[in-house]
Amino acid sequence: MPDTDLKSLVRTIPDYPKAGIMFRDITTLLGDAKGLTACIERMAAPYAGKGVEAVAGIEARGFILGGAVADRLGCGFVPIRKKGKLPAKAIGQDYELEYGTDIIEIHEDGIKPGEKVLLVDDLIATGGTAEAAVKLLQKLGAEIVGAVFVVDLPDLKGCGRVEALGIDCHTLIEFEGD
Ligand code: AMP
Question: Looking at the annotation, which residues are catalytic?
Answer without folding.
Answer: 61, 98
